[in-house]
Amino acid sequence: MDVRKELFENQDLKYKEFQSKLVPNISEEKIIGVRMPVLRKMAKKAKVENADFSTDYYDEILLKAMIIGLKKCSVSEHLDDLKAFVPLIDNWAVCDCLCSSVKFVKNCQREVWDFLQPYSKGSEFEVRFFVVMLMNYFFTDDYIERAIELISGISSELYYVNMAVAWALSVAFVKYKDLTFPLLEDKVLQPWVHNKTIQKICESYRVDSETKAYLKTLKVK
Fold first, then answer.
1. Which of 23, 25, 77, 189 allows an S-S link to 73, with CB 3.0 to 4.6 Å?
2. Model pLDDT for residues 139-154, shown as the tens digit of each residue
């Protein structure tokens, strides 16, 4: 399987233009423009064929993330794959694609929880990886208090970190309102994160109008 050749055969220039606007920090020349359903099919094929390919293009990195999620291997091998991949994350889309792909985490939470901790103090996309992984796999009864404490304790001036924190806390609010409400009432978050969290909660269909109205009174200037 010639992965790059197949990617360019499935190039959609309109989608490439769309993607370049979504990930403005990535050069348009590094985006081929392959739609996600096609990438998912390619990932399954590449995994079966054990295809070897470079990661010079954005689409190739996405493909690699999907393959990591498809692999059947030991916990230690999974963690090795994640450790090798994280340095490739240089935009929110690759980060979130990886995090949504690695469903195996549900079966090895303890090991992955320990593995993730150093990333809470890393670069912009390492911290985003940490936050989105906690949101995706550790908003459970066993981990939620620790997860909220760690996420709400992140202090950053970096946009993609703060967006991830607000997103995660808005999800936590829907699932664990009693644990998340005090953060907003006590206004312990950074002002931008605080207001963005409220905004994202208010966008949820799972929150009643009365709660939304009250949350809006908690916004800070």
1. 77
2. 999 999 999 999 999 9
